[in-house]
Amino acid sequence: MSEIRPPKPNLLRDSANRIKLGVFATNGGAAFTHHPDRFDGDWETQVRIAKHADELGIEGFISASRWKPFGGDQHYSGDLMETYTWAAAIAASTQRIAVMSTVHMTIIHPVIAAKMATTVDIVSNGRAGMNLVCGWYPAEVAMFDEEIKPHADRYALADEWVEIFDRLYAETKSFDYNGEYYKLRGAINQPRPVQNRPLFMNAGGSPRGTEFAAKNADIAFILAQSTDPLKIKAQVDQYRHLAREKYGKEIQIGISTYVVQRDTRQAAEAYVHDYVVTQGDDAAVAEFIEINVANAKTMPDGVIQQMSFALKAGYGGFPLVGTAEDIANSIKALSDAGIDTILLTWTDYEGGLRAFGKDVLPRLEQMGLREPIAATA
Fold first, then answer.
1. Whole-angstrom Cα distance, residue 377 to residue 373?
2. 116-122: which pairs have CB atoms within 8 A and are 24 or more residues apart?
3. What does the alpha-carbon distance between residue 225 and residue 301 come to, in Å, rounded to a whole number?
4. What is the rounded distance in angstroms from the CA atom of residue 104 to the CA atom of residue 127?
């Protein structure tokens, strides 16, 4: 008889650290830039980064997802590896870190998603999770012989998707489902997963998206509309209040960032200017904004330039720029504003993670935001 392995904790959900950390988008890179440091995501490097992040006690390794590039055929923005097969391979290469697949619910059927997520869950022994996205890129959806649905309809479909997925994960008998978007006969998911439910992330920011995240997600990600901690706290409080009052649940709040760490703040800011302003991929970002702005309900007037800058810097993330001390202080300010989870991107992931682990993590431990890895292993 084979030995039964006790399930691993999903650290993005279960870690006691005040600030949980994840490495985001190594499966293709996050910066829109022509700078030679732009990460190209070769597999051997990704495995080294995943193992190093695991050794550092970082809680999550999260993919981005893209089916069609911006900027024309063969543009690097389309070079993102498929996220479930990627996650299974990363899970087999690591020991503790949570592994998150980003999934387009409007493209990937929930029965297929449940089977793939279960596979990752078994390979990882309970460390699997998913970043749920509705999809908003018409050319991408058209590849699947579909038309982009109106904003509200995409979230209505997503609600059904999650309901079906949860039943497939939880139930052991076949069932029928009759919804507006899905009609299933004899649906079942085998083999059985390790977790009762994988960890769900979502970054819905419109009123309808916020409601979806509050209802369905374990971690809701905000797109920071300011670097002012008080304004970030207001966004955080909005999510928490909605989740508590309408759905009777507690959720974590996360934020994505781009990290540039140097010996001086001036050197860090000069590097950002070089890869974002001097060598930024303006054409691809302009196309991204042209497609996306009409659907970006969260954006106040007059922020297109800031959005362009942040996209080129790293998927629209919050800046963690400066010395190790500057970055640690910024992370503390985010924690004080109510942020629980921070996703990290770099142009040079391998060198950036190495410097972050050497110089920033010890400062976060001294601040009481994280326990030393020896205490959490």
1. 6
2. 116/84, 117/84, 117/165, 117/169, 117/193, 117/198, 118/169, 118/189, 118/191, 118/192, 118/193, 119/84, 119/88, 120/84, 120/87, 120/88, 120/91, 121/193, 121/194, 121/195, 121/198, 122/191, 122/193, 122/194
3. 11
4. 20
End-to-end CA distance of the chain: 29
- The pLDDT tens digits of the residues spanning 299-320 come to 555 567 888 899 999 999 999 9
CA-wise closest residue to 254 among 347, 359, 337, 357: 337
The Cα 164–Cα 185 span in angstroms is 12
Q: Which fold has domain 11-376?
A: TIM Barrel (3.20.20)
Condensed to tens digits (0 to 9), the pLDDT of residues 35-46 reads 999 998 899 999
Helix, strand or coil, per DSSP, at residue 252: strand
Sign of the four-CA dihedral 332, 201, 194, 54: negative
219-222 vs 318-322, strand pairing mode: unpaired
